[in-house]
Specification:
Helix content: 25-40%
Structural class: alpha+beta
Distance between the termini: 24 Å
Radius of gyration: 23 Å
Number of helices: 3
């Protein structure tokens, strides 16, 4: 799933359109802080996830019909081979859990933003702002981007950024950190 980097034309938090608003300020709906340098990364094609889930659901239909026909063929009161039915219930539970998880992840919209505030992200259904003062370094790894905090904690950003955008994101994070007036007197953001 490719991530799309764009300048800000609407609030990534509440989707309020910024047309007619100044180039820097706060969203009037939710208070999201932005300026002309704010960059937002969003997943480009979340519908591919839903297509994959639909294909896997269609794959469950033959398994379900076989289990039901086996139980109907054996009849009530006779020993039943429960293994196919138990397997079907387990797979269906995992499938429904995955559908619910992906629905809650994509309902509000996942994003990662770099702006005057620091790095703001919504992964799954939780929004979080990490001020520049708390960030020690941002590294692009093979499978995810790692944000190292000054208190020793690490945050992985792997749900939004694809491999090509990880390097771009880290470079833009370092550049935004260097331009932050609150960063004066501190070391540059490591990478």
């Amino acid at each position: 799933m490719q991530a799309q980097c764009r300048s800000i034309d609407q609030c990534p938090e509440c989707q309020y359109p910024f047309t007619g608003l100044p180039h820097s300020g706060r969203c009037p709906e939710c208070g999201f802080e932005y300026d002309e340098r704010t960059q937002v990364w969003t997943p480009n094609r979340p519908w591919l996830i839903y297509l994959a889930l639909l294909c896997s659901a269609l794959g469950l239909i033959p398994l379900a019909s076989r289990s039901v026909s086996q139980i109907a063929r054996i009849g009530v009161g006779r020993p039943v081979h429960w293994l196919p039915l138990v397997f079907l219930v387990a797979v269906a539970s995992l499938f429904l859990g995955s559908v619910y998880y992906l629905y809650t992840c994509n309902r509000m919209g996942r994003y990662v933003a770099i702006g005057p505030f620091g790095i703001r992200m919504r992964l799954r259904s939780v929004s979080r702002t990490i001020p520049w003062a708390e960030i020690l370094c941002v590294k692009a790894g093979l499978f995810s981007t790692l944000i190292q905090l000054r208190n020793g904690k690490r945050i992985r950003v792997c749900e939004v950024l694809d491999r090509n955008n990880r390097v771009v994101f880290c470079a833009k994070a370092r550049a935004a950190f260097a331009q932050d007036p609150r960063a004066l007197g501190r070391k540059n953001l490591k990478g």
